Each structure stands twice: as C-alpha cells, then as structure tokens.
Amino acid sequence: MPIWPQQYKHGVETMLPQNSVMFTANPQRVDSPTKFSVYCNSTEVLLSPWDMRINVMENIPPKEGQAQLMVHGSVVMSPVHAKALLQALTQTITLYEEKFGELDVQKILAAQKAMVEAATPVSA
After folding, report:
1. What backbone torsions phi and psi does residue 26 show, to the nearest 5 degrees?
2. Please, is 20 exposed, middle or buried when counting C-beta atoms within 10 Å of its C-beta (0-12, 13-18, 19+)?
3. Are 54 and 37 in contact (CB under 8 A)?
4. What is the pLDDT of residues 44-64, one digit of tens each?
5. pTM check: above 0.85
6. Contact 93, 112 (CB under 8 A)
7. Which candidate, 82, 102, 70, 110, places its Cα nearest to that of 17?
8. Domain residues of the chain, as ranges?
9. Which of helix, strand or coil describes residue 70?
10. Which residues contact 120 (CB under 8 A, 6 or more apart)?
C-alpha cells in the first residue's frame, strides 16, 4: 500500500496510507480538548485478537539502584491500523535515513545498557 506525504499547517510532513479515509476525504483536523504531547524513549507492545496496545514510556533516573520507566499512557488500535502505522513508520524512517544517515539501533541499545550499568551501585 503506497504512502503519500501530506503537509499540515505546522509544516510537519505526515505519512498516510493511500486508502486512508484521511487521504481520500481530506477532513479538517480538530484538536481534542485532551490533546497532549509526550516524550517517549521506551515502548512496550501488547496484543490481543482484537487490538494492539502501545505503552508509551520514558526511562528516568534509577532510584536506589533500580532502573525506572515512567508510563505516560497507551495507544490502542486495531491490528489493521497497526499494520498501516508500521508501513507509514517504515517509509518515514527510510526518508529520515536518506536525509540524515542510517540509524544504528544496536549501537544505541549498547550505549543505553552501558549507562544503566554505570548507574547501578555495585555491592561489596
């Protein structure tokens, strides 16, 4: 399914599936009164036969030697929408890497692990 870039009022390029209702109907966006933005550097994906849940979390400083994750909330969607999101994210990451260079996830995870280990007190 092709993904087409769309420009919105803030100049942010958003990738949408070609057969998306948003693409074909081009609806006006209306902000929810509870709209929010949150920083996320950790996620957890859970699934059931009916939906997928993405828990949005943030690594925060360890407390008493214990790593901590602050859970900001969850995004719940149908498996079909999750697959459309995957396709949009895949194309968006490809565009990002073409502009800014390859993202080396293994290198980032190794650095994150080293930071956690450095912050963990060693028992004598």
Report:
1. 50, 60
2. middle
3. no
4. 999 999 999 999 999 888 888
5. no
6. no
7. 82
8. 1-29+79-119, 37-77
9. strand
10. 62, 65, 67
